[in-house]
């Protein structure tokens, strides 16, 4: 009986004293392995990343309301990668009217730019 009480006390101490691990806002868009991500997964990660860039002041806040135009697998510098395109006609700078986000085939973010390269 003494061992059961000691075991239960230890289990309770470990359960209630540890804090849960919480992921960062983009934490759900980090993948391991080489399995190709589904297009829907990449699109969801692209929207998350675009919104984070807008919230962080890296791109104009008007991008937050823009939906993706297209997602496709393209040949990148290191092989195949996802290229997600967003078009924002409301932007003042016409050279920055189209935003491109690049992801690895498994779905990890690579880069974002306005050139598409």
Question: What does this molecule look like?
Answer:
- A hairpin with a 2-residue loop joins strand 1 and strand 2.
- A four-stranded antiparallel sheet has the order 1-2-3-4, with helices on one face.
- The protein starts with a helix and ends with a strand.
- The chain has one domain.
- It is elongated and about 75 Å long.
- It has two helices and four strands, in the order ααββββ.
- It is an alpha+beta fold and 117 residues long.
- The chain has helices spanning 2-17, 39-55, and strands spanning 68-76, 79-87, 98-104, 109-113.
Low-confidence stretches: 14-26
Task: Report the total helices.
Answer: 2
In N-to-C order, the SSE pattern is HHEEEE
- What structural class results from the helix and strand content? alpha+beta
Helix content: 25-40%
Number of strand elements: 4
* Gyration radius, rounded: 21 Å
Rounded mean pLDDT is: 80
How large is the share of residues in beta strands? 25-35%
What order do the strands of the largest sheet run in, or round the barrel if closed? Answer: 1-2-3-4
Instruction: Please indicate the count of domains.
Output: 1
